[in-house]
Amino acid sequence: MEKLTLEDLLLKVEEYNPLEVEIVRKAYSYAENLHQGQFRQSGEPYISHPLNVAYILADMHADKDTICAGLLHDTLEDTEATKEDIAFEFNKETANLVDGVTKLAKMNFSSKEEQNFANTRKIITSITNDVRIVIIKLADRLHNMRTLEFKSEFKQKENAMETMDIFVPLAYYIGAYRIKSELEDLSLKYLYPEKYKRIEEIKTKIEMDSNHCLEEMLKTINDLLKCQNIPHEIKVRTKNIYGIYKRLEQGHKIYDIHDLLSLKIMVDNIANCYQTLGLIHSKYHPINDKFKDYIYNPKTNMYRSLHTTVFGEDERLVQTQIRTFDMDKVASFGLTAYWDIEKGNARNVMQEDLKNKYQFFKSLIEINRIFADNQEFVHQVKAELFTDKIYVYTPKGDIVELPKGATVIDYAYKIHTDLGNTLVDAIVNDKREPVDYVLKNKDRVRVITDTMSYGPRNEWIDKVQTTKARRKIIEFNKK
Ligand code: MN
């Protein structure tokens, strides 16, 4: 990659926010001055790191305080500057962001172990104060992963593991898919270099071999949409290397991966998404059970799109993803898409949405409240949130996210305390099942309650996965 310059950053910011270029320029000079004489392991002047971090943020159309904080993010830790200096030179918001990012890295505990757990906890919970702190941290991690080649092999593996453990799930939960897939690929590259190389080669070959098929389909769909006067844009995408790696590990054959090749079709409104779907099905046979409506059943990280895998040209399976332009921003950037969609009010909308719409958030608050010990906190977050998840339906068709292994009891408490406390059993799909029934993906669950019921027994504690259910059972039995 070409070396990034200040001009690149300013041009990027100017694209979406021309009025605030000057403050970004000032933050750069300020940081450059402070980091004078410091160097990266690559031999480059240190400022190249914050500059790259700021550029990743500008690419997401971050607000100016976030970009400035990206430029200044290492000044409190590595230079003479103080939080008050930054507040004075810039503003309080920027100073708080930089301070937040710094605190993540700068905890002082006696043992290395304890420090690690405390630090991990800080990273995870900072999402509850201001999600922008985590986003800056993600950008910081992404650039460090991109430049990992200059570290020792031990450090490379250690960083890659930590990235998979903490940063990939965080990126997934806020829906930042672009960052998530790049972090996954970079981690794989350092954890299993040979496997990575092999799949990278396969991927390049697939892209060459599928070129004709995808070009043909792109042209056909383009013409169909033009005929109907539907404003649109189409992009080609191949699954990321880590995604392919995971499928192959599960025993799939490469060309049977149904979403290996995708066409992303963006249109102007929801009605046209469905019309586009019809047009595609009229031309290419769909695989019925690979059709997904994430527009009216969004993923729990707010991803929305129609997915349909069809029998494409040259006997290849091709997935098409159909969505509006705004949905596409959310699909790439998740919560951070609000920077672009909401402009000035983005920061508040992000924090509000996180509280109300993202299911993992309530679980996170619950775990944070219950577990005083840092090690136990980190362990529980990994077991309950950063783990394989299942998605089940309420009788109304809402989707509920639960950790794998969750039972009807977990489900009842996730919906409402009263449901858990009066739970008798449940109807799962069309069968009566006991309270300790382990739920599976796509189950439809209707709980049966009785206000005269016995209430949650103490033995139920061993039959739940979630912190909330466990706490509610304990509280009930104390009374
Ligand atoms: Mn940094």
Quick one: CATH class of the largest domain? Mainly Alpha
Q: What form results from the Cα inertia axes? A: globular
- How far apart are the first and last residues' alpha carbons, in Å? 64 Å
Radius of gyration: 24 Å
- State the low-pLDDT regions, or none: none
Our estimate of the beta-strand percent is: 5-15%
Structural class: alpha+beta
Could you please say which CATH topology of the largest domain applies here?
Hypothetical protein af1432
CATH architecture of the largest domain: Orthogonal Bundle
What characterizes the major β-sheet?
5 strands, mixed
Ligands and ions found: manganese (II) ion
What's the helical proportion of residues?
A: 55-70%
Strand order of the largest sheet: 1-2-5-4-3
Mean pLDDT, to the nearest integer, reads 92
Topology, element by element:
Layout (H helix, E strand, L loop, with lengths): L5 H11 L4 H14 L13 H12 L4 H9 L2 H4 L4 H7 L2 H14 L6 H18 L1 H16 L6 H21 L3 H15 L1 H17 L1 H17 L4 E7 L2 H9 L11 E7 L2 H14 L8 E2 L12 E6 L5 E8 H9 L4 H4 L4 H12 L1 H12 L3 H11 L4 E5 L5 E5 L4 H8 L1 H5 L1 E6 L2 E3 L11 E5 L17 H12 L1
Parallel strand pairs: 2-5
Antiparallel strand pairs: 1-2, 3-4, 4-5, 6-7, 8-9, 8-10
Helix pairs in contact: 1-2, 1-3, 2-4, 3-4, 3-9, 4-7, 6-7, 7-8, 7-9, 8-9, 8-20, 9-10, 9-11, 10-11, 11-12, 12-14, 19-20
